[in-house]
Design a protein that fits this description.
132 residues; globular; 27% helix; alpha+beta; five-stranded mixed β-barrel
């Protein structure tokens, strides 16, 4: 009798976890103020990429997040181009990359250069930028 109950308990636990996972996936992502917008193409895994049609490299420990905010391996993205938000490390390598969802792509304006980010105002809570 106990062996029969275990699968039922496991199934119930999985069903209860589904709404929590769905809620996480629909929650808006919060991007840091130093995140810039650009186009990203993975050229050769694990590190060679193109950012805004220029050669770029992924930093050691770089993170690429898909539209569902889950981490993606760089090898799975080879040859594909995405509109992204990204951050660079101190050496100028890509460190964080977020592939944008449709609502995130529609959010305008978003700085594409460090100079724009330095001169615009960022509202962290609303995740919006305003130009001077």
């Amino acid at each position: 009798m106990l062996r029969c109950a275990r699968p039922l308990v496991a199934a119930a636990a999985c069903l209860m976890a589904v709404p929590a996972v769905q809620a996480q996936m629909t929650a808006p992502r919060l991007f840091p103020a130093n995140a810039l917008r650009g186009t990203f193409t993975m050229v050769q895994a694990p590190v060679d990429a193109r950012l805004n049609d220029k050669p770029a490299r992924l930093s050691p420990g770089a993170r690429i997040r898909g539209e569902n905010n889950l981490l993606l391996p760089s090898v799975a993205l080879i040859g594909q181009t995405f509109l992204v938000h990204y951050t660079l490390n101190q050496q100028g390598d890509l460190h964080d990359v977020w592939i944008l969802t449709e609502p995130e792509r529609a959010r305008q304006p978003w700085p594409a250069t460090p100079q724009q980010a330095a001169s615009w105002q960022f509202d962290m809570a609303a995740q919006t930028w305003s130009r001077p």
